Amino acid sequence: MSPARIVVRGAHRAFGGRQVLRGLDLDIDAGEFLAVIGRSGTGKSTLLRLLAQLDRPDAGRIEAGGRCAMAFQAPHLLPWVTVEQNVGLGLPKKGRAQAVAGALADVDLAGWAKAWPLTLSGGQAQRASLARALVRRPELVLLDEPFGALDALTRLEMQSLVARLAAESGWTVVMVTHDVGEALRLADRVVVLDEGRVAMQVPVPGRRPRPIGFPGEAELSRILLERLGVPAGP
Ligand SMILES: Nc1ncnc2c1ncn2[C@@H]1O[C@H](COP(=O)(O)OP(=O)(O)OP(=O)(O)O)[C@@H](O)[C@H]1O
Questions:
Q1: Helix, strand, coil proportions of the chain in percent (round to 5)?
Q2: In this structure, is residue 108 part of a structural domain?
Q3: Do 14 and 82 have their domain in common?
Q4: Residue identifier of the C-alpha nearest atom 30 of ligand 1
Q5: What residue stretches are annotated with the ABC transporter domain (predicted)?
Q6: Which runs of consecutive H residues, i.e. helices, occur in 170-210?
Q7: Widest CA span of the chain, in angstroms?
Q8: Would residue 72 count as lying in a domain?
Q9: Global pTM?
Q10: 76-131: per-residue pLDDT in tens?
């Protein structure tokens, strides 16, 4: 599967007279893992929806070809069908069972195919949601605060899982997160959105994923938090 390259040029988007994106420019390389951070309401989810072609800019150009899958903070599983039916939803019948079984195995949910979504833990539900994304063999994966609702340990497990899947599949990934540490450990580059534009870009050196406290993490974190206007410590 060839990963997708993305070009955004001068993207504008307003809602009811409120200008959210104001001439945003962004280039994302094929196979790159990009993290997007920014204060609440700066247009991060709006950007993801434009990349997914669920919405269109009022002005400007977006090139984001290829098969795209999206995962959100809430897993959005249908409660009235089993986990495997959720994952296989909309896939052609031919090859579906095998593809679904493979995707569930990839997210360590092989034993939960026949389970009902409401019986899953938060982390398992999020993994099922990831399986639903990866069974579509995407080239571009858009993640909107995917671990935001999980406890700290499950969050770390999910970060490792996404890092592994991204490395194995060569996806281009755009992940919105509020967690600067998560962004720095998983991504090749972190961009800060502010006032509807890219206000700062920080390439993260070294191979991803990086361990907690990797050399340079504290300094990069300080730079990003300062740009976000958040004090880095008490
Ligand atoms: N479909 C829509 N209709 C009306 N307003 C919208 C719509 N989508 C987004 N907005 C508004 O655009 C602004 C940016 O929203 P967006 O969800 O992109 O921000 P965000 O950076 O992802 O925020 P958060 O970090 O809080 O999730 C908000 O003020 C939001 O209310």
A1: 35, 25, 40
A2: yes
A3: no
A4: 41
A5: 6-220
A6: 180-186
A7: 57
A8: no
A9: 0.91
A10: 899 999 999 999 998 999 999 999 999 999 888 999 999 999 999 988 998 899 89
Question: Which residue has the least CA distance to atom 6 on ligand 1?
Answer: 15
Sequence-ordered alpha helix ranges (H) in the chain: 44-51, 83-88, 96-106, 122-134, 152-169, 180-186, 217-228
CA nearest 71: which of 163, 176, 150, 164?
A: 176
User: 213 CA to middle of ligand 1, Å?
Assistant: 32
**Lowest-confidence segment of 115-119, 122-126, 202-206, 210-214 by average pLDDT:** 122-126
Closest Cα to atom 28 of ligand 1: 41
Does 147 lie in the same domain as 108?
A: no
Looking at the fold, whether 60 and 159 belong to one and the same domain comes out as: yes
**Strands of the 172-176 sheet, one edge to the other:** 68-72, 140-144, 172-176, 33-38, 189-194, 197-203
Ligand 1 pocket residue status of 155, Cβ below 6 Å: no
* Atom 29, ligand 1: residue with shortest CA distance: 41
Per-residue DSSP letters for 91-104? --STTHHHHHHHHH
Is the C-beta atom of 43 inside 6 A of ligand 1? Answer: yes
Does residue 196 have its Cβ closer than 6 Å to ligand 1?
no
Structure tokens at 63: 């090139």
CA of 193 from ligand 1 middle (Å) equals: 13
Cα(49) to ligand 1 centroid in Å equals 10
